[in-house]
Amino acid sequence: MFGKKNIIIMEWKKKWVTQPGLMLITIVIWSIFIGLCIQAGAILFTLIYSLFNPIVAQNLYEGLNLSALMEQDIRHYIGLLSLIVAITGLKAYIFYLMIRIFLKINLTHPFSKEVSKLISKIGQVTVEIALFIIFTNAYVKWLSKREFDLPAMGEYMGGAFEYFLMGIIIYAISKVFKRGLEIQSENELTV
């Protein structure tokens, strides 16, 4: 057990020496990942806590006030907050996948099957976020038409087009990366 831990520590030290730029980027990605996990966890916690103490619904997270929606219909309150938690959780998952990429990538042989799969997965999750945002926007509009009292939720509802476009671009990059993997494999066979 201690041997495996020492090997991992040695690999990290080697990466810091050989690829310090990638390791610094990894630290930034870790901080964003932790921030998104805290945000998703805080919203989920306050959602559950507000079910027992309705006053909490007045300030769920950074001033988000859905107390009027909670008073009107608790099912829609739970549904809307569940969608917001899902969107934030998926955003955190993207950064988790990015962490895995930066820990696996090696600049001397950058193309690997695992990194290619991770890049493809990021593209897929990014498109899923776009679809969740579109669905959540439609749900909020549907609630508004039925005269449910909702505050402005631009921070949680915006960016569907950007995520969709980013997902398509990342998917294209994953295809280029896959082709690079094939070329790298062919070069290793000819040498």
From TrEMBL:
KW Transmembrane helix (keyword) present: yes
InterPro entries documented for this protein: DUF2975
UniProt key word DNA-binding: no
Tree of life domain: Bacteria
UniProt entry keywords in alphabetical sequence: Membrane, Transmembrane, Transmembrane helix
Transmembrane segments: 21-52, 74-97, 118-140, 160-177
Pfam name, any one: DUF2975
Protein name as catalogued: DUF2975 domain-containing protein
Native organism taxonomy: Bacteria, Pseudomonadati, Bacteroidota, Cytophagia, Cytophagales
